Structure formats: structure tokens, C-alpha cells
Amino acid sequence: MSDESIRLVTIGRIVRRRRRLLTILVVVGALVGYGTSLLFPPRYTTSASVLLPGAWEERELLTQTQIATSSVVVDRAAAKLDWAGVGGSELRDQVSAKAAEGNIVKISGTADTPERAQRLSDQVAQQFVTFAGRIAGDSLDTEEAEQPEALRQMVVRTSRRITELADAADPGRTVESVQTRTELAKLRTALQEAVNKLDESDPAANKAGMVVMGPAARPSGEAPPTRTQLVAGGALLFFLLAVIGHLTAARTNRRLRTEPEIAAALGSTLLGTVDVPGARDRPKDQGSWARVRRLLGADVRWDLPTPRTSGDEAGRQLRYRRVYARLRDRLPAARRLLVLVPDGDETARRAAGQLVAEAGTDPSSGSPGSLSSPGSSNRGYPLLRVVGISVSRPMVPDRGTESGALVVLSAGSWTAGELAGIAEACADAKHEVVGIVLADPVLDRPTRSADRPRDAATPALAVGDNVTGGAR
């Protein structure tokens, strides 16, 4: 399976096992988005288009957009609008301009009402056209505008003088007169072409005369982000934060999952894995925080794999028998053992109870429930007593009638430090950890086989701290 598939499976597991918590967080995020929308009033945006005739380069169009949003243009628009308490500095943040295709500058205005947004865009566009026309030399009283006009007048007078000289020449009587008239005609044509080129290259003639292409349209909807967008964005943001938080917590989780890691942390040998049918047990912690966790559905681990389907009852009992047989083979003689179960590990506690029941029905000795005599050839079998142990402050009873400890726990529930603490507590109490049994939760079959007798199944035992196997 690829990394992408693993990530998708992991996210699906988070959504499936934390749907109640995620639903509450999504609702909280939507409420936060709604509250944010109340802090910011609705805004409306519209645009007015200004056509720039002639040929314009990209740099020149960029310059015109800067002019459209300059302080001079915006201040003039603010003075014309004359809105109470609104000056050019306030309007400068509400006006923007960009160059579009076809030498068009779009001037956008944003306001708290559609009417104000429309008036703002139209007024800024009008002031931009007026100011840009003056910069381009549209006024006739400037020196730059008078010089090309004086040149044109001079060319007209020169052309008229050339015509007079051509008429005064001897009309076609001599070769010299014909050549003179031809040269004067060429000169007059060259002057006219020069004037035409001057008109074409005049920036005041080409780039003046900007036109506002109609009034701005009145906006029909709010400018983004709208209230709906803020609500949806808040819900999505809280959902993503919740998923990322779960993934981060799973990545930093140091609970041991593999059998070699657990065996190394406890310093003993793994005797086997037994199946515990039924769904994962929820912790039975009391208190307000525990009730809140149960309400949110956060009291069950989400990062553990989905339990596999259980086999039949005979197969499960066979696993317990094999584990108990390995335990009996490791002990040189009949002994009493403590079965240590970490507090809160209900799956391990149920497995320990079933193991105690198996110890009480073991047929290896002549009389179940009693230890073999010293002179007997039968080695007997160990007697088991279940004891709960706190992983935060582990405490094991001192060695008395029991000499040794068997640890039963679930994989993926405890860290190396917590298991090492249990091993140290056993060493302090002079108990040897003779073995480890892992309890694996499985899903029970939905229906019972019709051909199997009902009393073949071993009833589950409610195991306390002082349950002893071997006596009926």
C-alpha cells in the first residue's frame, strides 16, 4: 500500500471514530466564522472602465493604473463626493485599478452600500480621466502644446510660398523651369508628409481623449469574504485543525505496538497472544473530564487498527490453553503467580480472567485445584491471582505465597517507560516476570453456529483483584 493510501485510510479512520468530536468542532468553527462576519460589515465592490485610445506599452498602462489610484485623483474624488467623515486617506484603501486587454483600465471601488460603491467608482474614473488628460498635454495654454501648433503653421506658410514660386517660374518654356517646378512640388510633398508624421507621433494627439465607458454597474451581492464564506471557512478550518491535531498526536505517540518492543521493555519473554471477543471496552474513569470525553466520543483510541473478526469459541480456548502450557513449561515446579493487569486495560483484564479460568480447569494434575506433592512425578501447574497495577505509580505486593508475576496487557496502550516501571516494581517486590501475554480485541461473530452446542462456550468471568485459579 502506498503512502497516499495509508494517509487516506488514516484520515478515514479519524472521521469514522471521531465523528462526534469532529461534528462539534465543525459547528464551533461555523459559529466562530459567523461571529467574525458580525465584526466586519458587508462590503460591495463594482468597477468602471476607462478606454485609453492609441498605442500603449505595458509599462505605460501600469503607470496609468498607478495614476488612477494616486492620492491626487482619490483626494479630488473625495472632495466631489463630500461624504461625512470620509476623506482621501480612507478612500485610498477602498480604490484599486488594473489594466485589462484592449487598453482598458478598470477602476474598482468598495463601500458599505451598493450605491456608494457605484458612486465611488464613477467619480474616481472621472477624476482620473481629467487628471490624465492634463498630464498628456490636453490643455492648450502649455508650452508643449503651442510648439507643435506653431510648427504646423510654419509648414503651411512654407507650402504656400512654394506654390507661389512654382507659379512665378516660366511655365514649361525651358528645361530649367520644368526642373524647378518639379523640385518645388517634391519639397511641398515632403513637408506635408513630415506634418502627417508629426501628428501621428504627437502623444497629446494619440493618448489624450480618454473615455469612461459608461457608469459602473450597481453591485447585486457582497464582496468576498461574504458571511457564508466566513461560516464555511471557519467550519473547514476547525475540521482541518482537528485532523492535523490527531495526526500530530499519533506521530508523537510513543506507545509500544510490536511484540519485540513490549518484551524488551518488560525484560521477559512473550508467551503468546489471546483473543478477547467484543468491541473495545471504554475506560471506566469517573469525573467530569471523563464524562466529557465519553460525550465527545474521545474515550476510545482511534489510532489502533480495526479489530479483526474472531474465530469460533474452540479456537479462542485453544489459544488460552497454549499460552498456559507455555507458562507451565517455563516453571520448574508448581508455583503461585501474580497476574498483573494495568489499570484501565479492560481488554487485558478480561483476558486475565479467562486465563485464570483455564488454569483452574487444567487437567495436568490428578486433582484440579491443588498443588502436587513434592514426591509426585507430576509437576503440577501454577495457580494464578489477578492483581491490578497502576502504571503511573506501580506497586506490586511483596513476595509471599506468590513468587513470580505474569503480565497481561494490550498492545499499543502503554509506553516503554510505563512498562519499565512495572518491571522495576516487580523487581522491588522480589517477583520475577516469568512471561508476557498480549490481549488482542476481536469482533465476535454475529451469529452462533447451529451445530455447536451452546454450553461449549466458556462463560466470561468478572475478574477482581483477588481472583485465584485452580479451585472450583
* Number of E-state strands: 9
Average pLDDT metric: 79
H and E string: HHEHHHEEHHHHEHHEHHEHEEHE
**Low-confidence spans:** 1-5, 364-379, 449-472
Question: What profile does the largest beta sheet have?
Answer: 5 strands, parallel
N- to C-terminal distance: 50 Å
Major sheet strand order: 5-9-8-6-7
**Per DSSP, what share of the residues sits in E-state strands of 2 or more residues?**
5-15%
Shape: rod-shaped
Would you tell me the structural class of the helices and strands? alpha/beta
User: Radius of gyration over alpha carbons?
Assistant: 47 Å
Helical proportion, percent range: 40-55%
| Tally of contiguous helical segments | 15
Compute the number of structural domains. Answer: 3
